[in-house]
Amino acid sequence: MPELPEVEVVRRGLETAVSGRTIAAIRVLDSRVLQRHPGGADDFATAGAGRTIQAPRRRGKYLWLPFADGDALVAHLGMSGQFRVDDAGQPLPTHCRVVFEFADGGPQLRYVDQRMFGRLWLSADGAEGPVELAHIAADLFDPLLDRNALVATIRSRTSGIKRVLLNQEIVSGIGNIYADEALWAAKLHYETAAHRLSPSRVHQVLDAATTVMTAALAEGGTSFDALYVNVNGSSGYFGRSLTVYGRADLPCLRCGRPLVREPFMNRSSYRCPRCQPPSGVVGR
DNA sequence: ACTATATCCTGTATGC
DNA sequence: TGCATACAGGATATAG
Fold first, then answer.
1. Residue at minimal CA–C1' distance from B9?
2. Is A162 part of the annotated catalytic residue set?
3. Model-level pTM greater than 0.90?
4. Beta-carbon neighbour count of residue A156 at 10 Å?
């Protein structure tokens, strides 16, 4: 699922494919993708035409395409959103929801989304940072991130550490996969109360998250089930490198004990029962 | 202010 | 073969 590294791969692909190009027309094939656009689908298509795209930017899992006039197109890929760049003559992919045509007649930009959790919208004056993203915290790759302040914020929370890592208002970009990978690397149980962690332990798990996401980015992102692809339609290879996520019953790569999958927040958490035992759990 | 849970959405896999 | 259920999970609304 697209987390920070996957979104960054998409951002880089868009930077090459659409920077400097002017949108000629937008075709909306499924308006649900635009339910976050204030004027709805028709307004999105009308208002988006004629805009010239500048270098795409990202915070956490959000992308935005700044326009030369100061507005922006904001995108969140949800679980299964993809941007594809294809020649107009190519057949539309299954689940294609929005098509962007360009004034230069070159390849189209297509937004594809099977599970329909992704959203696109136009943000007035959003080029330097959409106001709708004001609540999204800096991510671990942000040069302006205040790491010590982040550690203090994390340590002020009583929730389990994984909930805190997944809270995009505290630190953005981390999703279920990289949270589990970071917690395994830091040998922490996901329910360990954040306020019971020492500053160095919090630094350790943040360092682990940074390391695993850096490695994933270098391999073009994680592809777990082919729903995530770059703008060319090819998958990342990092799925081969995951140490715990999706490896229930397989041996821990550190100690050999079978890994476990447990229900967590209507999804799953994976951990090693020996390396990541319950300790300092919320409510205990 | 903080915490926790339900909800949205659809294709695939699994069980009976 | 067909039907039902579980599962994937990010962000938000809502309840506590």
1. A115
2. no
3. yes
4. 11
